[in-house]
Amino acid sequence: MTMDDGRRVTWSKASLIVTAIFLLSLSSSASVAAHGRSSKRFVRSYDEPCKKMRLYLHDILYDYSNSTANSTAAAVTKPTALSTAVSKSGYFFGRVVVFNDPVTEGKALPPALEETAVRAQGLYLYDNKEDYTAWLAFSVVFNSTAHRGTLNLIGADPLAEKTRDISVVGGTGDFFMARGVATIRTDAIEGFKYFRLQMDINLYECYV
Ligand SMILES: *[C@@H]1O[C@H](CO)[C@@H](O)[C@H](O)[C@H]1NC(C)=O
Ligand SMILES: *[C@@H]1O[C@H](CO)[C@@H](O)[C@H](O)[C@H]1NC(C)=O
Ligand SMILES: *[C@@H]1O[C@H](CO)[C@@H](O)[C@H](O)[C@H]1NC(C)=O
């Protein structure tokens, strides 16, 4: 080994130490940003979900015939000219519905619709002239002893498909920086008045 080699070895050791210190400082600033998640580990695994949840969303559309207390969703558009022009039955093209829906672990409607610890807040809109398809954008807001925070979901919802996959694009609180896919399935439907969605939320990036 020449002296030159020796110096190179020493230099690379020094640079390793500097790199290690740099990485340590990076990871500590990451845990500061994660608000006390320092005891938790960030897992990214696209083969196996790091967290799985099955939840049910109950959407009760106010249709003038029912009580306002028993309604969690409201159409915010009049039938669009295009939707009435393209088809007699109407696929509601352009209709936008805003909701603040109860979300439960079981299938039963909760006794107090406004007071569940988990809510789904957002909108869906109908976006097809010749079929029932919708587009969803909403937050699942958790305010329970088990979880606090939000998951934000977005995606196309072709209603004729038995299951539809939508993206979990991010999260906050207990779901800080979470990402994944939610498989949704219409579990029950009463005309255009009520539907229950089964949501299988699989996170592939999360703190565990
Ligand atoms: C709301 O509709 C349900 C059926 O969809 C009915 O059982 C209930 O009595 C209605 N409530 C009111 C206040 O109209
Ligand atoms: C969250 O739950 C707590 C305790 O039940 C309640 O006091 C608080 O108002 C809730 N916050 C929201 C935003 O619903
Ligand atoms: C509320 O509406 C849902 C959906 O139509 C219905 O199943 C339920 O019986 C209604 N509850 C009350 C108290 O009216």
TrEMBL record:
Q: What is this protein called?
A: Dirigent protein
Q: Where are the transmembrane segments?
A: none
Q: Which residues form the signal peptide?
A: 1-29
Q: Which family does it belong to?
A: Belongs to the plant dirigent protein family.
Note the PANTHER family from the entry.
DIRIGENT PROTEIN, DIRIGENT PROTEIN 5
- Which UniProt keyword terms apply here? Apoplast, Secreted, Signal
Tell me which Gene3D superfamilies the record gives.
Allene oxide cyclase-like
Compartments it resides in = Secreted, Extracellular space, Apoplast
Please give a single GO biological process term from the UniProt record: phenylpropanoid biosynthetic process
Q: How would you summarize the oligomeric state and partners of this protein?
A: Homodimer.
Organism, by scientific name, is Oryza brachyantha (malo sina)
Q: Which GO terms describe its cellular component?
A: apoplast
> Gene name, please?
LOC102703986
* Physiological role: Dirigent proteins impart stereoselectivity on the phenoxy radical-coupling reaction, yielding optically active lignans from two molecules of coniferyl alcohol in the biosynthesis of lignans, flavonolignans, and alkaloids and thus plays a central role in plant secondary metabolism.
